[in-house]
Design a protein that fits this description.
With 555 residues, this protein is of the alpha/beta class. It has 3 domains: 168 residues, 3-Layer(aba) Sandwich (Pyruvate-ferredoxin Oxidoreductase, domain 3); 179 residues, Thiamin diphosphate (ThDP)-binding fold, Pyr/PP domains (Rossmann fold, 3-Layer(aba) Sandwich), CATH 3.40.50; 104 residues, Rossmann fold. Helix content is 37%, strand content 18%. It contains 19 helices and 20 strands. An 8-stranded mixed beta sheet has the order 6-5-4-1-3-2-14-7, sandwiched between helices. Helix 11 links the parallel strand 10 and strand 11. Helix 10 packs parallel to helix 11. The longest helix has 22 residues. 51% of the residues are buried.
Length: 555
């Protein structure tokens, strides 16, 4: 076999996420490319949670509905997912929790608690035991799993190995996965890729109030703060987050914040402050289904227009929507650079699927990231914080400079930053701020703001954005279609987009929302879609699910 999908499920609190990561690392060690999708409810304990670990000889960034193996730690897992199996009896279950007569089970039953008691091991190690049985089921040698467990568990690694061995010995081979003759690539989540990209872009401070699905960025950067000399702060609210970030920006620090839709609502006045005072900041916006609290631990693409129009007044903003780990890294760094080069707010739009899924990460696929220097005051003339000039980007000086008075105001102001309501001055300043977009667009022409994949000669193209990149590329391969993915959302790269659509006669827009937000956006620039495929139940497209929908659209 050159591909496998494994589903592991149980109650929240059963360690499903950790188990999924171990299985992913096991398959990655064999040279396979890995993608891990996580599904969990918004409660700490109880409820059903599962992960789908997919490995392939080819690069992947999406999951399949149908799986080769189900690992069930409770009865509910089999009840919910038995129909996903490609073949009957290809499941491994806790024989003390899952009753064969209740589900007609003929897979591999492992008495987990019995083995744990015999080894004097804690209950949480049942996952190691059942993963041992899975290792046998997919035809791997035990020493491959042993090396992974010893790296993953700093506490009681030998005991984890012992209980995993019990499961391995009780298992049987169902599928044969052969090692590939290549090295595995690092495995990281999209959120970790965003964090590392911000660091690459020169991040000085990260400020955030925890909110799914962007919270892991805060946790990760807090863990590595000392290694990269970062200030990582968790204030009392999202209002505090955005205002504190503007304080860092005022002092000359490169700063980013993270939030989700509800927190972003609270930040919008601060984003307008950023636009007026020309204080650069990067906002990571992790989308999730709404309105209001919505489905807090699930995924959607519903904040595109919110990001475009957030905040009162008219001002330039840079908005990107990366589609995988490499793009999350690259465009987070570029966003920080562009924000500080043009003294504007930048928004990186992610979602739960991108942020919390696990991807292989290949630095060889990432373009060089050029560091953009800020324009600094030449100290030859009296300092004007908002000096009128050709490109609208005024030279910088920072508070504490004994030779400069540095003002920042949310009011309209003159070149010195002094409040004004003069109509002529108001127009000059508004035109100054908006001039930045023309020069920002020139920079975008040097970047791949729109990506094209698949069959470039196809007259039918899929249009996607953000986390639907992976599933669209793979589904398009089956039908020989082109895929067009705008990564930069604002300023919209019209010229590159038009070139990407060359030869296309039928454009099918694939989005995880109910209203076709990207389809609506491109209409503003004179482009139209012929069809839309929309999914808005909080769950992402699967490759096979999107394939079925496409069959209807391309007849």
């Amino acid at each position: 076999m050159n591909e496998i999908s494994i589903l592991i499920g149980g109650k929240a609190g059963f360690g499903i996420d950790k188990s999924g990561n171990i299985i992913g690392r096991l398959l990655n060690k064999l040279g396979y490319r890995v993608f891990i999708y996580r599904d969990y409810p918004s409660i700490i304990r109880g409820g059903h949670t599962f992960s789908i670990i997919r490995a392939s000889s080819s690069r992947i960034a999406a999951h399949l509905d149908k799986v080769d193996l189900v690992i069930a730690l409770n009865q509910e897992t089999l009840g919910l997912h038995k129909d996903r199996l490609k073949k009957e009896c290809f499941y491994i279950f806790d024989s003390e929790q899952v009753k064969p007569e209740a589900a007609g089970i003929c897979g591999i039953g492992i008495p987990l608690i019995k083995y744990l008691k015999e080894e004097n091991a804690p209950e949480i190690m049942r996952n190691s035991c059942i993963i041992g049985a899975m290792t046998k089921a997919i035809g791997l040698d035990f020493d491959v799993l042993e090396s992974i467990l010893k790296k993953e568990f700093h506490k009681d690694p030998e005991l984890n190995v012992k209980v995993a061995r019990r499961g391995f010995d009780a298992g049987k081979e169902l599928i044969k996965m052969d090692p590939l003759s290549r090295e595995g690539l690092p495995l990281i989540t999209g959120n970790e890729a965003v964090a590392l990209g911000l660091i690459k872009g020169g991040l000085d401070a990260y400020i955030s109030y925890p909110m799914t699905p962007s919270s892991p960025i805060l946790h990760y950067l807090a863990e590595v703060a000392k290694d990269f000399s970062l200030e990582v702060i968790h204030p009392e609210s999202e209002i505090s987050v955005i205002l504190m970030s503007l304080g860092f920006s005022y002092m000359g620090k490169k700063v980013a914040v993270g939030t989700s839709g509800g927190g972003f609502c609270l930040m919008t006045e601060g984003i307008s402050f950023s636009g007026m005072a020309e204080l650069p900041v990067v906002i990571v916006l992790g989308q999730r289904p709404g309105p209001s609290t919505g489905l807090p631990t699930y995924s959607s693409q519903t904040e595109l227009h919110f990001a475009l129009h957030s905040g009162q007044g008219e001002f330039v903003r840079f908005i990107v929507a990366p589609g995988d780990a490499e793009e999350a890294y690259y465009w987070s760094a570029i966003s920080l650079n562009m924000s500080y080069k043009y003294q504007i707010p930048a928004i990186v739009i992610t979602d739960k699927l991108l942020g919390e899924s696990t991807f292989n990460f290949d630095m060889n696929d990432i373009q060089d990231i050029k560091k953009e220097a800020s324009v600094m005051w030449d100290r030859k003339s009296p300092y004007k914080r908002y000096l009128l000039n050709e490109n609208g980007v005024s030279p910088l000086a920072f508070a504490g400079d004994k030779d400069a008075i540095v003002k920042a105001s949310s009011y309209e102001h003159d070149e010195f930053g002094i409040t004004t309501e003069d109509p002529k001055q108001t127009m000059l300043m508004q035109e100054k701020r908006l001039r930045k977009e023309e020069f920002l667009m020139q920079d975008l022409e040097k970047l791949s703001a729109v990506k094209v994949y698949g069959n470039n000669n196809s007259e039918i193209a899929l249009l996607c954005w953000g986390s639907n990149k992976g599933v669209c590329i793979e589904a398009a391969q089956k039908f020989g279609l082109k895929v067009v993915q705008p990564v930069v959302i604002n300023p919209f790269p019209v010229k590159q987009f038009q070139e990407a659509l060359s030869g296309v006669k039928k454009l099918i827009c694939v989005e995880s929302n109910a209203t076709g937000q990207l389809a609506r956006l491109i209409r503003e620039y004179g482009f139209n879609t012929n069809e839309t495929i929309l999914k808005y139940d909080g769950r992402p497209f699967s490759v096979d699910g999107l394939g079925k929908a496409l069959e209807e659209k391309i007849k």
